[in-house]
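Box 3.1 — From sequence to structure: HIT family hydrolase, diadenosine tetraphosphate hydrolase
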Amino acid sequence: MKKQVNKFSHLTAIDRVKLSSPMQFLFDRDLLMGRILDFGCGLGYDVNFLERKGLNITGYDPYYLPKYPEIKFDTIVCCYVLNVLMPEEQADVLMSIAHLLKPGGKAYYAVRRDLKKEGFREHYVHKKPTYQCTVKLPFKSIQLNEYCEIYEYVHYNHQWNSPNNCIFCNPYRKISLLTESATAYAMFDGYPLSKGHVLIVPKRHISNYFELPQKEQSACWLMANKVQEILNREFQPDGFNIGMNVNKAAGQAMNHATIHVIPRYLGDTNAKKSGMRSVIPKQSRIDR
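Predicted structure (token representation):
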């Protein structure tokens, strides 16, 4: 299925002579700490202003400043980006920011609260179809008025999540999350079968993957795409096995659904066959 994109989203960037109001809010409260990234910075006016104030800030925008960051950041700010993106694009931004954020760091999302109409409209200057939508996030809201809401985000394992004893609902703080979305996160497996073995974990505490709501299942597979993109960049594997264990007969040991993304490397096994049909040894001889 082809991902829906808003190819004219960059046209919503505007010229400004002062800080955007969300960035001003964060600056006035000393929330812009350490190494800072303005994700979706548009024309870069906030970045230029804060650089002159002595802050260590970098801008990234897929259209105007397309060099993707290669380091991680203490603070990431994303102002009014999500409102002009399709849902799958929004999820990709959340996952990208989670991956670029240092453990213990904080990200801030500013979204508009003054939209009168959602959907496509003709841009009043460029005369191209741009898109806008209302966005609500499952993160802590630190500022809300009639124009804007600002959310504070920290990695899933740096917040209190559930009173149950499930280690996937309450992952250890020492774990470095690979990425995260609104409904799932990914981490390196504690007992990896290969270099870069990752678990995708739905945040909903449920044992059987097939009992997850369809939107949350879809979110897991969007994350699988993001995970393989990251692993390809960082480990250069030769292939992947992707699968899950559902119920005890299939080897499920923990009472929480997970999806395994296992990078494969040429020569990493002595077996003649190393694909999914080798999971049940006597079936590995069948060629199809």
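Summary of the box: The domain at 9-154 is CATH 3.40.50.150 (Rossmann fold).
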